[in-house]
Amino acid sequence: PTIYVITPTYARLVQKAELTRLSQTFLHVPQLHWIVVEDSSQRTDLVSHFLEHSGLVFTHLHIPTPQDRKLQEGDPNWLKPRGVEQRNEGLRWLRENIWAGETAEGVVYFADDDNTYSLQLFEEMRWTQRVSVWPVGLVGGMRYEGPVVEQGRVVRFHTGWRPSRPFPLDMAGFATSLRLVLRNPEARFDGNSPMGFVESSFLQGLVTMEELEPKAEMCTKVLVWHTRTEKPKMKREEALQAQGLGSDSKVEV
Ligand code: UGA
Ligand code: MN
């Protein structure tokens, strides 16, 4: 089965660095189709050129997050969910472009551009029947969060916050079969869901806790980390720019 990886991404100083790290992980994964969805009103030249030279099988989409849904400078980052419209756009593309027949073998995974992914993770998810799950490291103010497995079944979730949520999982902690996505055309992420419920808004109706397929040695191994990249400081750059001595704007970073 092909793994369709949906990645929301947006323009900022570290974007090319993040995409480089991610693409060079994906180059080691057989049968991976990367669906990159820019948070922008147009495809940007930077991402277009980047993908053309990436060596990956890819689809390049874009959809802007409406202004009233975007996080403003200074907002706490839990205020509004990010990447929601972009993930839904990736789902739309799959539903319109992949034939929903018996041969539609595949897996759908939502990979944010700043996390760290072990190659082993992709082999764990490749044989997903409905929805497979595993722990995520360094998330939710915890060493890791993840499903708790007893006798081969998920019975609850190890999380530091609101374990009563229908699916208290991080976006990086599950994959779904392509067939399930195609057969449930209404399943999507709800950007209006309260904080921490975005993943649940998609998974509710697709699967029950009892049906979840635990991977990564019964959810005892961490194969993905919710790393976050520090925003680079530009103090010197700005000081030099004020003197007309800033870095060459023709050099892409
Ligand atoms: C956490 C979760 O791990 C995300 O899956 C979830 O989308 C996010 O919170 C949220 O709901 O707010 P976090 O590291 O805080 O992740 O979020 P980011 O990595 O900053 O953003 C998630 C994805 O959306 C990234 O791929 C990022 O490139 C993209 N994004 C972010 C946009 O497309 N537009 C933006 O304005 C910001
Ligand atoms: Mn992130």
TrEMBL record:
<protein>
    <recommendedName>
        <fullName>Galactosylgalactosylxylosylprotein 3-beta-glucuronosyltransferase</fullName>
        <ecNumber>2.4.1.135</ecNumber>
    </recommendedName>
</protein>
<keyword id="KW-0479">Metal-binding</keyword>
<feature type="binding site">
    <location>
        <begin position="112"/>
        <end position="114"/>
    </location>
    <ligand>
        <name>UDP-alpha-D-glucuronate</name>
    </ligand>
</feature>
<feature type="binding site">
    <location>
        <position position="114"/>
    </location>
    <ligand>
        <name>Mn(2+)</name>
    </ligand>
</feature>
<feature type="active site" description="Proton donor/acceptor">
    <location>
        <position position="199"/>
    </location>
</feature>
<feature type="site" description="Interaction with galactose moiety of substrate glycoprotein">
    <location>
        <position position="145"/>
    </location>
</feature>
<dbReference type="GO" id="GO:0051216">
    <property type="term" value="P:cartilage development"/>
</dbReference>
<feature type="binding site">
    <location>
        <position position="87"/>
    </location>
    <ligand>
        <name>UDP-alpha-D-glucuronate</name>
    </ligand>
</feature>
<feature type="binding site">
    <location>
        <position position="39"/>
    </location>
    <ligand>
        <name>UDP-alpha-D-glucuronate</name>
    </ligand>
</feature>
<dbReference type="GO" id="GO:0046872">
    <property type="term" value="F:metal ion binding"/>
</dbReference>
<keyword id="KW-0812">Transmembrane</keyword>
<dbReference type="GO" id="GO:0000139">
    <property type="term" value="C:Golgi membrane"/>
</dbReference>
<feature type="region of interest" description="Disordered">
    <location>
        <begin position="233"/>
        <end position="253"/>
    </location>
</feature>
<keyword id="KW-1133">Transmembrane helix</keyword>
<feature type="binding site">
    <location>
        <begin position="226"/>
        <end position="228"/>
    </location>
    <ligand>
        <name>UDP-alpha-D-glucuronate</name>
    </ligand>
</feature>
<keyword id="KW-0464">Manganese</keyword>
<feature type="binding site">
    <location>
        <begin position="8"/>
        <end position="10"/>
    </location>
    <ligand>
        <name>UDP-alpha-D-glucuronate</name>
    </ligand>
</feature>
<dbReference type="GO" id="GO:0050650">
    <property type="term" value="P:chondroitin sulfate proteoglycan biosynthetic process"/>
</dbReference>
<keyword id="KW-0735">Signal-anchor</keyword>
<comment type="pathway">
    <text>Protein modification; protein glycosylation.</text>
</comment>
<dbReference type="GO" id="GO:0030198">
    <property type="term" value="P:extracellular matrix organization"/>
</dbReference>
<feature type="binding site">
    <location>
        <position position="82"/>
    </location>
    <ligand>
        <name>UDP-alpha-D-glucuronate</name>
    </ligand>
</feature>
<dbReference type="GO" id="GO:0005975">
    <property type="term" value="P:carbohydrate metabolic process"/>
</dbReference>
<keyword id="KW-0472">Membrane</keyword>
<comment type="similarity">
    <text>Belongs to the glycosyltransferase 43 family.</text>
</comment>
<keyword id="KW-1015">Disulfide bond</keyword>
<dbReference type="GO" id="GO:0015012">
    <property type="term" value="P:heparan sulfate proteoglycan biosynthetic process"/>
</dbReference>
<keyword id="KW-0325">Glycoprotein</keyword>
<dbReference type="GO" id="GO:0015018">
    <property type="term" value="F:galactosylgalactosylxylosylprotein 3-beta-glucuronosyltransferase activity"/>
</dbReference>
<keyword id="KW-0333">Golgi apparatus</keyword>
<keyword id="KW-0808">Transferase</keyword>
